[in-house]
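Incident log, entry 3
Record: 2-dehydropantoate 2-reductase (335 residues)
Problem: checksum mismatch between cached and fresh output.
Input:
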Amino acid sequence: MLASTIISGNTSRVTVWTYAEDLLAQRINSIKGVYKLRFLVFGAGALGSVVAARLASIHEVSLIGRKDHVDAINECGLRVTGHTEVLQKKIDAGANLAAIDGVPPDAILITVKAYDTRSAVRALASYWNKSIFVSLQNGLGNEEAIAEHATKVLGAVINQGATFIGPGEVFHAGSAEIDFGPVAGTTNEDAETIAAAFREVGFPAQAKRDIREKIWAKVVLNAAVNPLTALLRKRTGELVENKALEPVLELIVKESVTIAAASGVKLDETKILDKIVAVAKATSDNKSSMLQDLEKGHRTEIDAINGELIARARAHGITCPVNELFANMIHAAEA
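Fresh output:
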């Protein structure tokens, strides 16, 4: 049987043909230029679930997540509402690797919290020399940690607003661009292959040779947006609507750009401030991951974001009082 799935969003509607085991469906996908890849999403919370649900409309997707989330997916499917509307039942979900198909994936999408990166990579030891590892994470240092073991690594910058509603359900608040680029043992062609797979399901994805600069720019953005949304209990869109916060955003961005420059990465303050506004508007209903973590009483990624900027500032003899203030306040909120 041949069926179609429609993925809707604020800016696009993507129709893909499913049940590609059917020869006619395979032929249609071939004509449309769709090539199926095997993906493993490791550590699927809100973001990983949105990505998995959309990719599974065309590609083969396995997902590793928390047991209650996985059980709900296996029983009823993965429901995504908001910018994406889909009930995805074509996902091989498990709480650990032993529970899923062991065939090596073409790409492993790492979506765990930054403080769990090394443990995640150790758990994936059987794939170190077989699959491309892609970090879809916040913070600095994830790609380097993965490359300590994995032979093929891509970096990525992903701007998608996602909120975990409950087991088997997430809310997609909005979508902005996704960039992929080579880090270790990979090429720009590898990045384009993964970007093309994301584009096929409606994500605005592209390959970038300068992914290090993109990752740093995202960290500077996160260093401003995440702590402020978390401390003020504001959704992303509310942050840029508040004129009183404009000088605060300018201070943290200026300080963080100075740290980047000392680390060999040249960034433009104005462009990053403009980017903050653009991303906030595109994901206006989103709760930042840091806000979600505080609401749930979980550890945040402040150390991988502002904490990494602080460490690099100290290494270069630079003062960073705004980053230190944000980090200390988040740590106090975590206590």
